[in-house]
Each structure stands twice: as structure tokens, then as C-alpha cells.
Write a structure and sequence with these properties.
single chain; 1 helix
Length: about 100
């Protein structure tokens, strides 16, 4: 049981109502503060998620850019190999 809900040892319910109102008010304020902190944390988590998505898009763009030269080089090597096979008889000198 939370401290703000416990009765002091020397008092019974119904006596000193003002003290209990103060305890209740303090508990309510603490819960309100914690709810506000929870809301701030959720906003921070949403911002982190947005930034993470942005980083993911940037990394994907970099990967795409890095992959293109590799793909072009591979394509050029294949074309050169094909040209070598098909032009084998054409490149020979007279003789």
C-alpha cells in the first residue's frame, strides 16, 4: 500500500481529516507529476523512432549508391567477357 494511503500509527480514520487531505493531495500531485513524466518519455520515444527511421533511410540510400558501381563493374566485366568470346576471330592479325 502506498505511503500516502496509510494511516499514521497514532491516529484512526476519521480523526484529523486535514492531515489525510494533505496526504491525499500529495499523493495526487505525485501521480500527476509521474503521469507528466510518462507523457514526456513517450514523446521522447516517438522522436527517437522518427530519428531512427531517418537514419535507416539514409543508410539505405548509401547502400544503394554503393551497390551501383559494383553492379556496373560486374556488368562491364560480363560484357567484356562476352565481347571476348564473340570477337575471338575478329581480333587476330593477318598472318
Amino acid at each position: 500500500m502506498p505511503a500516502f494511503m496509510r494511516f499514521p500509527q497514532n491516529q484512526r480514520p476519521g480523526t484529523e481529516g486535514g492531515q489525510y487531505r494533505k496526504l491525499f493531495r500529495r499523493g495526487f500531485e505525485k501521480i500527476s507529476d509521474e503521469n507528466q513524466q510518462m507523457g514526456e518519455m513517450l514523446l521522447a520515444m516517438e522522436e527517437i523512432e522518427d530519428k531512427s527511421n531517418q537514419v535507416e533511410r539514409i543508410i539505405k540510400a548509401i547502400d544503394d549508391i554503393a551497390f551501383r558501381p559494383i553492379f556496373l563493374a560486374l556488368n562491364a566485366a560480363i560484357e567484356a567477357a562476352r565481347a571476348g568470346v564473340y570477337s575471338e576471330g575478329l581480333c587476330r592479325g593477318g598472318g
